[in-house]
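Why do we bother with holo predictions? Because pocket geometry can differ from the apo form. Keep that in mind while you read this record for iron/sulfur cluster.
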Amino acid sequence: MKKHRNIPIFVPHLGCPNTCVFCNQRKISGHEKADFSSAEGEIEAALATIPQGTDVQIAYFGGSFTGIDREDMIYLLALAKKYIDEGRVQSIRLSTRPDYIDEEILDILSRYGVRSIELGIQSMCDDVLAASGRGHTAAQTERACKLICERGFELVGQMMTGLPCSTLEKDKYTAEKICAMGASGARIYPTVVFRGTELENMMNRGGYKSREMENVIAEGAELVGIFARHGVKIIRIGLQASELLTEGSETVSPYHEATGELIWARYLRNEAESALAGEQTAGKRAVFTVAKGSTSKMVGQKKENLIYLKEKYSLCDIKVRESEALSCDKIEMILEERKKAYAT
Ligand code: SF4
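The structure, written out:
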């Protein structure tokens, strides 16, 4: 299978008429204003680092691409199409809102070579959408997903956890719906409260309580389990490093820059527990096989997963191996008898 690379181009939605309570786009992006003149240079610079034979997508992220000024949208699509026509890029990926999808928009996207549409679904519960100021309904999302899938685009569902009015059950429902609506990929974003947002005001008024990190991790791991069961690939959990605001002054909710790692680690620990359940584990060695590159997630920060599992199941030892044959949501386990130590 060809390796895949995105060339991300940030497209802020200047003048966005919506009022999502969690949004402070300039703070999230680190950009002050749109500057499309640099897009071509960014694409060229990225292409210079990408090996031949890679499946490359120009990815217009950051805002609601199909809701920006129409001339800007066409300019950016035409720019990307030029690279597609030259054979240097294979397709376009973009993120947008459910209410900015209709037949006419999809016609345009199709003409310019868009393959993947990431939809900011956030929640499939109308009360959560309303309390979050999203300005669209779950029915609109359902309709947008249907149109996107019918037209043959790849659908990626972006959801947020811990929004106002939401519960674990509602977040799980949203994840299930994203799978049922035909998404092949998902992004999970635990809600982060940024300074200066309406969500911060709500928090100050007592109308919103942010989740403790332990809840964010435990709940996130459950959602990973849902997507894994449905074979929906999780593209990302938590904000990107470039979007992280480590100064601390910018965020006013509990927050960890490695949220995604922590959630994956908890998911793998849960999977390990499922494998261990019902087995005679005392004094034995457990050998877990995980996907290539997943050892650190299996081990956990400061080896906390290994310590937890060893203690809870009275294991004498735990080994972690990697296999290219496993996807990152799969784990295999064998239990071995303890090897006797011989003194010479
Ligand atoms: S998150 Fe909401 S308010 Fe912010 S840019 Fe996107 S649509 Fe507009």
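The chain has twelve helices and ten strands.
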